[in-house]
């Protein structure tokens, strides 16, 4: 049931402006969700998220787990007959959720995003081992992926020490504004 009185009229234009995506063109054909590798873990399918934004249903869209579970792989956009940039919409919703201080449905994933950004800020690229270790310490989930981590180390898929790009100060405008 949609309560039109409680619809947030600013949601559509805000997400439209921030994502630079014309999601008004969505046909609700569901091709995006059908191809999404993470749809089974989501509470709303990608097309449902688009519809929530179109209808101004801000709490449902901003508090959804979907916007944090989306990994931005672009599979949905490739499948979309209207070429809608769904990852950009998810990104805009994540920003808005943080801006409005809504309860984050997947706080551990937010923590993971923070650690990835922290690594890029420090080295100009990601140092996966450090990201995982910091993430594990922060979430106090120390041992769940130990086996995978050890196998990756054995196959030399994880660098023990980080490598830094030259001229890291070029990233200052990104992180320091
Ligand atoms: S594939 Fe594109 S047009 Fe179809 S429902 Fe998803 S976003 Fe809408
Ligand atoms: S970008 Fe997000 S919504 Fe689209 S297919 Fe990948 S995980 Fe699913």
Task: Summarize the structure in short.
The protein is mainly alpha-helical and about 180 residues long. The chain is about 55% helix and about 0% strand. It folds into two domains: about 5-100, Orthogonal Bundle (Fumarate Reductase Iron-sulfur Protein, Chain B, domain 2); about 105-175, no CATH class.
Describe it for me?
With 177 residues, the chain is mainly alpha-helical. Helices cover 54% and strands 0% of the residues. It has helices at 11-19, 31-35, 46-54, 58-62, 66-69, 75-79, 86-100, 107-123, 128-139, 146-154, 172-176. The longest helix is centred in the middle third of the chain and has 17 residues, at 107-123. Bound molecules: iron/sulfur cluster (SF4) (2 copies).
